[in-house]
Amino acid sequence: MELHLGKDEEPTESLWVRIKGSTGAGDIIAGVCYRPPDQGDRADKALYRQIGAGSCSQALVLMGDFNHPDICWRDNAAEHKQSRKFLECVDDNFLLQVIEEPTRRGAMLDLILTNKEGLVGDVKLKGSLDCSDHEMVEFRILRAARRVCSKLTTLDFSRADFSLFRDLLGKIAWDKALDGRGARDSWLIFKAHLQAQEQCIPAKRKSGKNTKRPPWMNKELLGKVKQKKEAYRGWKQGQVAWEEYRETV
Known about the structure:
Layout: E1 13-19, E2 28-34, H1 41-55, E3 60-65, H2 81-92, E4 96-97, E5 110-114, E6 120-128, E7 135-141, E8 153-155, H3 162-170, H4 174-178, H5 183-193, H6 197-200, E9 203-205, H7 219-236, H8 242-248
Parallel strand pairs: 2-3
Antiparallel strand pairs: 1-2, 3-5, 4-5, 6-7, 8-9
Helix pairs in contact: 1-2, 7-8
């Protein structure tokens, strides 16, 4: 499969192939990528565009060393700007990251991204190869994605104890707790206190046809994402002025 770079785009260290499906089965797009730790914004943008194009396929598996050690996949958060942009790319394209263990010196640099739950299975770390300091990652691409129970959870507000929730949060002196704190420190403090929701609001499995979407992705946000992508496509093709595109996003 060829994902051509634009005329003014920086080259990226990536390779994409199409695995032909048997009769009645769709093709699988497989990509391998290496993102140098000092890669600039222009090359990142070119890579994100390729990822966006690949994610439009029915089944995508993208693997490689993306060099974003500061990303916390559990909280979907990162310290550095480039890492946050990468997370935004992953979210915008509704990709799932399936590696759960560090692959190099306690950091999760090597990732497997897919746009179809159940397409990747049996993920294992197999130790380093020769002089490499990265863990080898072994996994299977399942030609027919098996049905799996969704790992996504959402809050079950119908069984929530809001009285207890109000009492727990009401005991916190917010003015003192956040006094003199920056945005990041304030968020970490707020996030720690927000764990009270685990005592008061039970979680439940998210089920249905949209299980590959994050629990917070509702119809309104999907419309906004679509509007943003259409504006970007129009700007790249010269059909939308920069001011109009900037106002949209």
